[in-house]
Amino acid sequence: MSTIPPPLAGPARPPASAESGQAPAPAKRPFSFRDKIGYMFGDFGNDFTFLLQSSFFMIFYTNVMGINAGHVGTLLFLARILDAFTDVGAGRLIDTLRPGRTGRFKPWLLRIMIPVAVAAVLMFSPFLQDGAYGARLAWMIVTYILWGSVFYTLINIPYGSMASVISNKPGERSSLSVFRSLGGTLANLAISVILPLVVYVQIDGRSELSGNRMMFAAIVCAVLAVFCYLLCFVNVEERIATPPKPQGERMGFAKTMGTLITNRALTGIVAGALLMLIGMMMLMAIMPYVFNEYFNHGSLLSVVNLAGLLPTLLLVPFATMLGKRFGKKEFGVFGMGIAVVAGVILFVLRTDSSIVFTFGYAVMQLGIACINLLIWALITDVIDYQEIRTGERNDATVYALYSWARKLGQAFAGGLAGWALAAIGYQSGGVQQSEAVLDGIYGLATLFPAIIFALAGLAFAFWYPLSKKRVNDNVATLERKHADEGVQA
Description:
Strand order of the largest sheet: 1-2
Radius of gyration: 23 Å
Distance between the termini: 11 Å
Order of helices and strands: HHHHHHEEHHHHHHHHHHH
Number of strands: 2
Oligomer: single chain
């Protein structure tokens, strides 16, 4: 592995030296606020399509396209099995390719931003709304896999991996994580607060999702996603050169995967994040049904989503400091506890007041934000831990496995939401639901996530090993290792 000089402008080559007569590579500018803003826009771009899919995919295909909820849930689950191959394959490809002129990860933003945006629009196009059921089902399957398993994978994995080469300092990495989460939160504001006001219409006293308005919203989100990817590309700098080892010196795929599945830090964060995301995405998938069916006012979804996002925005200025003071892992476990308590109280109250429900939901989101704002810094800690264990950096492969876990969490949530809705007797097509179904929807939005968040907190507390002290020790170890390599070079 190389030292930590500025990244080389072209393919990997020996460092400049007086003996070789080579001119030194141009110096990279220091890490600054510009990198934080640029990295924030990258997640802004990602979430313009990711949150669009998470928030509206199921209700679009059940209520507009008339697809059985169980079929939607099955697609979301089976697609994640496919992602086990596409995500890891993409990560391994990126780790073994030589860096481009602008770095190892940045070029992928330009390569994939247009395809992922187009696929998102196709996913929400109601062209076959009146077609045969088989044609509608095929359209859903093809467009979803094209967006999620192919293009989103090829842009999200290099973007997420990039944080480990922007800086090697824990505080700066934590700030990147916070700003990335801020980007996602701002995208969430646009999608979950503004879009419901646009895509829902009142017809004969009932709230319904408009297919044509949904497609128009997807087009706007796709254009904004491309713009945000460009802002990320021009403002972020890759500083840590990590050219791949020569073929004969690098661990093979099987050996690399063996070291990863025995990496307790990686398996711990995968388990904790998987459970957290199941709870979080279950909330996102069920919330449209809560307000469209239980409270019979879909446009109120804007209010509850705004209330859920405000705690995150309020926490943003303090998250880096709190993570540094108490430890990222420790602060996240505390947050899961808050979410559990809020969910249980809401379930016990069984309130008919949208105001009370919205307040409880906001407290749940505050708990989620405690871990979600710093989760990306945890990943860079895991990447460092992998280097200490094996002597190699597998940035993209490690991130790919975590990305797959996130998608798996989303899939389980979507699958569980679809299967659970079918199990409680939910009827597709915008029909009036029974009282028993409405009670079931309420339980799916309160007690079920609380149980999942409790399991996530336990996983982070007792499985994931990178406490505050352990992370600081690992950073010091790598600094000595890289300094030694610099002397040897």
